[in-house]
Design brief:
single chain; mainly alpha; 5 helices
Length: 122
């Protein structure tokens, strides 16, 4: 039963990340976060708000929830700051394979942060 619970939690984390990072990211945010700090901050604020709401149902205390929220905000901002700038340069240069490699690495880093936080801060 424990393995099934972990698998269900992993699927929920992936789904919430997809919603927060892609579905709720506007065209303006996605096109401008690589060159406009307000676009990036808006995206990260929305992303973190979704995780705060979701984390409310998982974490057992306010300290864990607020620590998770803070870690999520800071790491998401730092990851996207670097990867959005790097991937946009590759895409603009017609190097789409490298651009998508950066996007994939971006996602890997986000999942590592989320899974580690959910594991250690519960």
């Amino acid at each position: 039963m424990m393995m099934q619970d972990g698998l269900i939690l992993a699927c929920i984390i992936v789904a919430i990340h997809w919603l927060a990072d892609f579905v709720l990211q506007s065209q303006w945010m996605s096109l401008n976060k690589s060159k406009n700090s307000l676009a990036l901050l808006t995206h990260v604020a929305i992303y973190t708000t979704v995780w705060f709401a979701a984390g409310f149902f998982h974490f057992t205390g306010w300290k864990s929830l607020l620590l998770f929220t803070g870690i999520t905000f800071i790491t998401h901002f730092c990851i996207d700051y670097v990867t959005s700038r790097l991937s946009s340069k590759y895409f603009a240069a017609g190097q789409s394979r490298r651009g998508f490699m950066v996007v994939g690495f971006d996602q890997l880093l986000h999942y590592i942060q989320l899974f580690l936080c959910f594991h250690f801060l519960r």
